[in-house]
């Protein structure tokens, strides 16, 4: 299993590449909203590092609620057209991988997606 720092590095390269391809295709993906998404993910990883190994599901849920709320805010600023299927397929596994690296079992959550009830995209 990858560590949080490894996942953070992988995340950065995956998001940068995805945003570049989307922007080249004429979508509303810009360096600015890419950086906003990366900042949300950095805060997630910082939070996960703080609760890693503690098994504190309440803290995890608070962290995921905030993360998905922040991502929803970025999406709303783009008229709900930024985070769609491709972004969900990119970001959800990244988030789940981080949760797992912090010592939580994704299978213990509905549909294997910790925080899925907070996700609107």
Summarize the helices and strands and which ones pair or pack.
Layout: H1 4-24, H2 31-51, H3 57-77, H4 85-101
Helix pairs in contact: 1-2, 1-4, 2-3
Give the helices and strands as they follow along the chain. Answer: HHHH
From the spread of the alpha carbons, the general shape counts as globular
C-alpha end-to-end distance: 27 Å
Helix content: 55-70%
Radius of gyration: 14 Å
Structural class of the secondary elements?
A: mainly alpha
Brief write-up:
The chain is 66% helix and 0% strand. The protein is mostly helical and 121 residues long. Helix 1 runs antiparallel to helix 2, helix 1 (4-24) runs antiparallel to helix 4 and helix 2 (31-51) runs antiparallel to helix 3.
Description:
By secondary structure, the chain is mainly α. The chain is built from four helices and no strands. The chain starts with a helix and ends in a 20-residue tail after the last helix.
């Amino acid at each position: 299993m990858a560590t949080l720092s490894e996942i953070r590095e992988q995340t950065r390269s995956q998001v940068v590449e995805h945003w570049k391809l989307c922007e080249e295709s004429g979508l509303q993906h810009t360096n600015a909203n890419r950086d906003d998404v990366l900042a949300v993910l950095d805060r997630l990883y910082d939070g996960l590092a703080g609760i890693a190994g503690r098994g504190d599901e309440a803290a995890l849920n608070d962290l995921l609620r905030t993360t998905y709320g922040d991502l929803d805010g970025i999406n709303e600023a783009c008229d709900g057209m930024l985070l769609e299927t491709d972004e969900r397929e990119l970001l959800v596994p990244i988030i789940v991988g981080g949760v797992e690296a912090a010592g939580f079992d994704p299978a213990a959550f509905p549909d294997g997606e910790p925080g899925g009830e907070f996700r609107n995209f």
